[in-house]
Design brief:
heterodimer, A: 158 residues, mainly alpha, Arc Repressor Mutant, subunit A, two-stranded antiparallel ribbon, 2 strands, B: 186 residues, 2 domains, three-stranded antiparallel beta sheet, 6 helices
Chain lengths: 158, 186
């Protein structure tokens, strides 16, 4: 926790992370655990909205994700990305990626678009059928790689 | 109703009491523990939605490119498919030296001589039009063939396999002779 405090997380976020490390929690459960306030007690509404705002902020950064689709009392959990970032604070190398879109993924996505454009251009020219076929095959192959990389990215934030 | 109002009043009161704390939290978050990339600037939408949105846009582009490539691939693989289909037909042999002829004045129209038939492929349309020898008259109508190309196709259709091979050989020799004569003697 001392290491967490040195990080860029604010105090409330540290409390939330600490609670979520133990398991999934709804916002009401977080308020109860952090502020020892129950529904109906004085100051509950203020703290609830404060925690909710902080959860939304962390969700927009990909650190927490709601595990329910409907209803107000949705449980929240830490994402793979958050776990990777938390472990990296202490200099632990887990092999997990610290960014939502790593540079190598961006390169793969760029190569797919470039190969697709090249294949379309070459397909219009009947003078280079071998090159056109080669570009098309490479396009299909790299598009497959891009799909798998995207699925990994999605799993990192869900 | 009263409860909600009380909660709102409490919140306003609390924010009025601790304005500095809120400012501090805001400024701390500007540094951003999360992803500080372009997705971080898209507001308070959850990262899952941001990633899904970006992915949807990106893969739409990839699909558009793939759909643009579709007709071309169809054309390129059609001849190969025809050859494989024909090889499976009993009594038909795939000629060892397949000649592909483009009728005069008809670029994009290919004639594939099979034994004992010929097949004409009009690759100017998508999907390409394929005719067997029985449909040469239909080919003239649908593919808008010139009279010269029509005569050539009928000539080919009335030939035996051996005659056709000899005809193609003579065309190839003529073309080679023309090419040799056009190259200046060094």
């Amino acid at each position: 926790m001392k290491e967490l405090a040195k990080s860029e997380l604010n105090l409330l976020q540290i409390e939330i992370v600490e609670e979520l490390l133990s398991g999934r929690r709804t916002i009401a459960e977080l308020v109860e655990a952090i502020y020892s306030l129950r529904r109906g007690e004085a100051g509950y509404g203020t703290q609830y909205s404060r925690v909710r705002r902080e959860i939304l902020r962390m969700e927009s950064e990909g650190l927490v994700v709601s595990k329910g689709l409907f209803g107000r009392q949705r449980p929240y959990a830490l994402t793979q990305l958050a776990v990777a970032k938390l472990t990296s604070i202490q200099g632990v190398e887990t092999g997990l990626c610290l960014s939502v879109f790593p540079r190598i993924d961006l390169a793969v996505y760029g190569v797919v678009l470039a190969l697709g454009a090249a294949a379309v251009v070459l397909a219009g020219k009947e003078t280079a059928p071998v090159l056109s076929m080669l570009a098309t095959l490479l396009f299909v192959f790299t598009a497959g790689i891009a799909v798998t990389r995207f699925i990994q990215t999605l799993r990192r934030v869900t | 109703m009263n409860g909600a109002r009380r909660a709102r009043d409490e919140k306003q009161g609390d924010e009025a009491e601790h304005p500095d704390e809120e400012d501090m939290i805001e400024s701390e978050n500007e540094a951003g523990f999360g992803d500080g990339g372009f997705l971080g600037r898209l507001g308070w939408v959850s990262m899952r939605r941001k990633v899904l949105g970006v992915g949807l846009g990106y893969f739409s582009c990839v699909l558009i490119l793939a759909s643009m490539l579709g007709p071309t691939l169809q054309k390129q693989f059609l001849a190969v498919g025809l050859i494989h289909l024909d090889q499976g037909t009993p009594g038909k042999e795939f000629p060892p030296n397949l000649s592909v002829v483009t009728p005069a004045q008809e670029p994009g129209v290919l004639v594939l001589p099979f034994n004992p038939d010929i097949i004409m492929v009009d690759s100017r349309t998508v999907p390409p039009l394929v005719y067997a020898v029985e449909n040469i008259t239909l080919a003239k109508t649908l593919s808008n063939l010139s009279d010269e190309a029509m005569r050539e196709l009928l000539l080919l259709a009335n030939m035996t396999y051996e005659e056709r091979q000899a005809y193609f050989d003579s065309i190839a020799m003529e073309a080679e002779a023309r090419q040799n004569s056009s190259v200046p003697a060094s």
